[in-house]
Design a protein that fits this description.
- This is DinB family protein.
- It is a single chain.
- Helices cover 52% and strands 0% of the residues.
- With 174 residues, the protein is mainly alpha-helical.
- The mean pLDDT is 91.
Length: 174
């Protein structure tokens, strides 16, 4: 089980700097993902309730790879092993049977920490490195564009987790 988490408030309504807003909302949604998974047994974390078949734990691992792919490999241009993750034979997100919940949570939190470090050293108008994901001839997006993409990815997946959680145990919101 993922440990209990107190709901984090949304960023203050007085925050107006776009870079600060993007970073603060990303942290809000990163925390929301973990809150949505809090209290689920290991069996529930590893079991799908959806026709598509993905599990809550697989979604968490997917989001860790999203962070890595867009910021570490993408924006920073650092070499990354398996930037698209280790998909199973069906091409879906995959968590190995022997991989513990704690390992997946640690991978996610470590990747989020690394993403914050990368973002802290740059400005939204900075263009992604020419290596890694955006090696020529790829178009090199700005950090602001990448962060906006990550924000919408998290918002979508948190919404999916809302539905999953409601199907599992009736929990809604937060």
């Amino acid at each position: 089980m993922i440990g209990p988490r107190n709901p984090a408030p949304e960023p203050p309504q007085t925050m107006s700097d776009p870079a600060e807003l993007l970073a603060a909302y990303l942290d809000f949604y990163r925390d929301a993902v973990l809150r949505k998974l809090d209290g689920l047994s290991e069996e529930r974390l590893r079991t799908s309730v959806l026709p598509s078949g993905w599990t809550p734990l697989e979604l968490l691992k997917h989001l860790a790879h999203v962070e890595r792919r867009w910021l570490e490999w993408g924006f920073a241009g650092e070499p990354v092993r398996e930037p698209w993750g280790d998909a199973g034979p069906d091409g879906r997100w995959h968590v190995a049977e022997g991989e513990s919940v704690e390992e997946v949570v640690a991978f996610f939190t470590t990747q989020c920490r690394r993403s914050r470090e990368i973002v802290a050293g740059a400005r939204p108008a900075d263009v992604a490195s020419g290596g890694g994901r955006f090696a020529p001839p790829a178009v090199r997006p700005t950090l602001g564009r990448i962060l906006f993409h990550l924000l919408q990815e998290y918002a979508r997946h948190v919404g999916q987790l809302d539905v999953v959680r409601e199907l599992i145990d009736g929990a809604v919101g937060e």
